[in-house]
Design a protein that fits this description.
2 copies of one chain form a homodimer. The first copy, chain A, has 16 helices and 11 strands. In chain A, the strands form 3 sheets. Chain A has a 5-stranded parallel beta sheet, covered by helices on one side. A 4-stranded mixed beta sheet of chain A has the order 9-3-11-10, with helices on one face. In chain A, strands 1-2 form a two-stranded antiparallel ribbon. In chain A, helix 9 runs parallel beside helix 10. Chain A is α/β, with parallel strands linked by helices. The interface between A and B is large, with 62 and 62 residues.
Chain lengths: ~400, ~400
Amino acid sequence: MNPDPDYSAAYVVLRTDDGHEGHGFAFTIGRGNDVQTAAIAALEPYVIGRDAEDLGTLYKEMVNDSQLRWLGPEKGVMHMAISAVVNALWDLRAKRYGRPLWLLLAEMSPEEIVDLVDFRYLSDALTPDEALAMLRAAEPGRRERVARLREQGYPAYTTSPGWLGYDDDKLRRLCKEALDQGFKQIKLKVGADLQDDIRRFTTAREVCGPDFPIAIDANQRWDVASAIEWVNALRRFGPHWVEEPTSPDDVLGHAAIAEGVRPVPVATGEHVQNRIVFKQLLQAGAISYLQLDSARVGGVNENIAILLLAAKFGVPVCPHAGGVGLCELVQHLAMFDYVAVSGSLEGRVIEYVDHLHEHFLDPVVIENGNYVAPSLPGFSAQMRPESIAAHAYPGGDVWRDQ
Amino acid sequence: MNPDPDYSAAYVVLRTDDGHEGHGFAFTIGRGNDVQTAAIAALEPYVIGRDAEDLGTLYKEMVNDSQLRWLGPEKGVMHMAISAVVNALWDLRAKRYGRPLWLLLAEMSPEEIVDLVDFRYLSDALTPDEALAMLRAAEPGRRERVARLREQGYPAYTTSPGWLGYDDDKLRRLCKEALDQGFKQIKLKVGADLQDDIRRFTTAREVCGPDFPIAIDANQRWDVASAIEWVNALRRFGPHWVEEPTSPDDVLGHAAIAEGVRPVPVATGEHVQNRIVFKQLLQAGAISYLQLDSARVGGVNENIAILLLAAKFGVPVCPHAGGVGLCELVQHLAMFDYVAVSGSLEGRVIEYVDHLHEHFLDPVVIENGNYVAPSLPGFSAQMRPESIAAHAYPGGDVWRDQ
């Protein structure tokens, strides 16, 4: 589905009078980056000259701009732009408070956390009072979980062996490396050719053994019936989950697929537009793993709503990552979830892709297949000045010969 | 929900070597118009220098651009931009063939019509073969229905009495005018204050009588429980439908509301992002009226898919209109539906708002509460040159003193 990505980002820098900076971005895969830039510019009135303290109010103001809502509401280009700005505000906040974002969030009171969330359209599944009760119930163990994260990190899985087109030798070698590096799970892309999927899954099982979690990812390739047929043809290999079997908009389709491929669990989320669609996926019992993305829905605030919804329905969050900087951001959300929301690592892993981390000032660190808990202040969102200069369009060095 | 609209449009003009022009636009309510402009510019490679004949292929190419899909897929700003370009291509086509669009479409063969549709993600509800069978079944009466449209037009309803804040005298006068003008239905905005809704509905019933269709429209104001409670408080007035009771993304919410307010029918669509969400609303039995919009989903092509889905499920299409030029466009789709898809006017009305038609070269004409079938070639999409010149941002006259 994504044959020719050209990883890009519309990049936001917010500056305050006290000398702090907040960085954020909308990740794109090439064309359309200038559309994101225009959308971010449309949000300038919400941040320029404003106080950056009350991030619940700023977020809700942006989402509820009555004219900009017409372009969504709460989906697509405008919503990704809101995400970039909201995430930059959180990077700024975390730097000012001298905390990595996950810890900043995890030290907030249940009441403060609930105030960050827009509960509109959620009350049939989750009320503010229920959210508050859940957060309070998770308060007692916070300190121990912070300590555990600092000691052991958060479990990760890797997609590196999984790309289409690898021959058996390469697949074997990459599976072996994933095991050696301590990753908790791998993932295979599927859906182009069933015989090739069978060959690769056979090889991966040979290397990883019968019990190691191996997920499959279809990147929205199928309609409902073909998803059920294809996944059932791979069922004997014990897929840990099937990811994005169909359109991210198709709640009922995911529910029908979940029913049709049982006991294979269904996962989705990287393209799910907002908390309202996640709510329905959970209500319909359509997903067994929820794969939130740090830069598609309305930033940290909406992702807190999604973490609360997942916890309410008892569905583990296994975040999507990759792209540019998505690993850097999403680790903070997963760690906050562990400390203050779900309180659990059970069935939970963060995706890891070993790509483009060299451009970030505070890149993710993987040790023994775990994300090491970030310790520097901020959201790990800031790119290195020399990377920004080289890749800025159209003046940067990398564009000179194009 | 839309307290301060400033009706705007990102306007597209396509020109061919043979001297024809196609016009289209993305309607906005103010801020964000420049975001739409950037999104339309991102689609230039799909039209500049291309042959404008195969509109099935051009549409599918735009929707399936793998990089631009990342910004959706098929929703929000990018999808509205595709709509503007696709609709401009259809305006061009209809002018070249010397036909009003509704007639051009209605003269196409079932096979040609099916080729225009992207059936991806629809096959669990509608296959190409089923669509073909439906279109073939509707072929016999096409000529009679064309004649009937030319003689009698297509029934319309008006929202003019329905805005919040009118006192009883004004509401009474506008209801009376709507009846005198022959409109088949009126619509009241609701959801701000229940006592005020009761007062206005009481007055409207007094003027219009017990059986005249009076719909209510909440513009997405409610969560599920409050929608059910509010609508049931108005049930004794016999609402013809309740429109947009909650988020347009909430299929399960609409289904729960439909269940909770039965027998009051539920309607939605002006903000529904694409055919995949419409498919689910129909599968879930969540809507009794489908209100497609001409300029939000992927243009004429995707609206044909939506008309076919509605016909398959036996749900009448009562299009959304208003804004800038939405009446002009959508009448063509409803008339095509009548001639070649559903073959029926039963339970069907097109919304009418008496606003801004003076800017169009081929404005809608209402006679005795019916849309008169357009006879000029094209999609009625072209604005008057002097209107474009005066409103062009930032150089136009109307911006001079702002």
